[in-house]
Design brief:
This protein has 363 residues and is an alpha+beta fold. It is 26% helix and 23% strand. Strand 17 (313-317) and strand 18 (322-326) form a beta hairpin. The longest helix is centred in the last third of the chain and has 26 residues, at 337-362.
Length: 363
């Protein structure tokens, strides 16, 4: 399976939705970096349903244990390994679905690839449950980056047709990240957050789900982090972000809005400010030619509606080879985007940390 990522650090995520445990191994981390387990714990809480009453009713405490890689509170150079025990599994919820693939899930493609030997409960290794160890890896990378004053933050930009304000693409700050996290929903405009909450509760009552978008920013990167062509920062961030199962799209800077702009509108002028070369605007999203430009990296991700819904849907019976109907039981989020915010931050942190460690080696 392709459940590993990285060049300078190697991140490998293991486990299944209803297996005994899930976890992550990270190889290549620099030694001597202080690791604050409480920071990791607090970061994990943000994706936990216990932290947000709008999420699934599954009780995921996400209590983790670090098995290796840390000694006396610091990374020690050995592979970092952390595990989370799955304590509230209900595989029986999925028994009726073994031969009837759920629409918009990986059930069908996994069956074809693994010929029936795949873990069929809760999505197995394809489950969003695996974003918990992703968040552990992201939190470790955030601690490494923070030592160089590089910070990452995100907020819900949109739920359905309700929009939050956007980060200022030129001057977003760590304080802006903290303000967005202050509340039940991770939004900048709290009034928009209330409207989002009403919409989410409404689709939950209907047995349905709704999608959203997340805006993420990286600040503090020096100019020149990244590589051209296949290892550009957009490439690396995108590859990591698509590890979050619900992600269906990504854009950097002005993104698809740039289609309707003239070159004279989209181009970001260079200026001299305080004796340094600066960039006046940030339509490019902080990345030029695959390299960081010194401006905030700004990107947005599209998060699909939760595919597990109580409404009856059409599918097939793969054993009988006939059409069938299905309504998905179990405990599911009416809007995945809420809990995906820290997951997107974590994915970005892993990608940026990997690229930044390479940058430090050669600069």
């Amino acid at each position: 399976m392709g459940s590993f990522y990285g060049e300078n650090i190697k991140v490998s995520i293991f486990g299944q939705s209803h297996s005994n445990a899930i976890g992550v191994v990270i190889d290549g981390l620099p030694s001597g970096i202080p690791i604050n387990e409480n920071f990791i714990k607090d970061f994990l809480k943000r994706r936990s349903p216990a932290f947000n009453p709008l999420g699934t009713k599954r009780k995921e405490t996400d209590s983790f244990e670090i098995l290796s890689g840390v000694y006396d509170g610091h990374l020690c150079g050995a592979p970092f390994c952390a595990v989370i025990k799955n304590t509230d599994t209900k595989p029986q919820d999925y028994k009726e679905l073994f031969n009837t693939p759920r629409p918009s899930h990986a059930d069908f493609t996994a069956r074809m690839k693994y010929k029936g030997f795949e873990d069929k409960t809760g999505g197995g290794h394809f489950s969003g449950r695996l974003t918990a160890p992703l968040c552990i890896a992201g939190a470790v990378c955030m601690e490494i980056l923070a030592l160089s004053h590089i910070y990452i933050g995100a907020h819900i930009e949109r739920i359905g047709d309700i929009w939050d304000s956007r980060f200022d693409p030129v001057s977003v700050s760590k304080e802006d990240f903290d303000k967005a996290q202050d509340g039940e929903l991770c939004v900048i405009n709290k009034a928009a957050g209330k409207e989002m909450k009403r919409l989410i509760n409404s689709v939950r009552e209907d047995g349905n789900s709704v999608g959203g978008a997340i805006e993420c920013a990286v600040i503090g990167l020096p100019v020149g982090v990244g590589e051209p062509m296949f290892y550009g920062l957009e490439n690396k961030i995108s590859a990591a972000v698509f590890a979050v199962p619900a992600v269906k799209g990504i854009e950097f800077g002005s993104g698809f809005d740039s289609i309707g702009m003239l070159g004279s509108e989209h181009n970001d002028s260079f200026i001299i400010k305080d004796g340094k070369i600066k960039i006046a605007a940030n339509n490019h999203g902080g990345i030029l030619g695959g390299l960081s430009s010194g401006m905030p990296i700004i990107f947005r991700t599209a998060i699909k509606p939760t595919p597990s819904i109580a409404i009856q849907q059409n599918t097939v019976d793969m054993e009988k080879m006939e059409n069938a109907e299905i309504s998905v039981k179990g405990r599911h989020d009416p809007c995945i985007a809420i809990r995906a915010v820290p997951c997107i931050e974590a994915a970005a942190a892993i990608a940026v940390c990997d690229a930044f460690l390479r940058y430090k080696k050669i600069n």
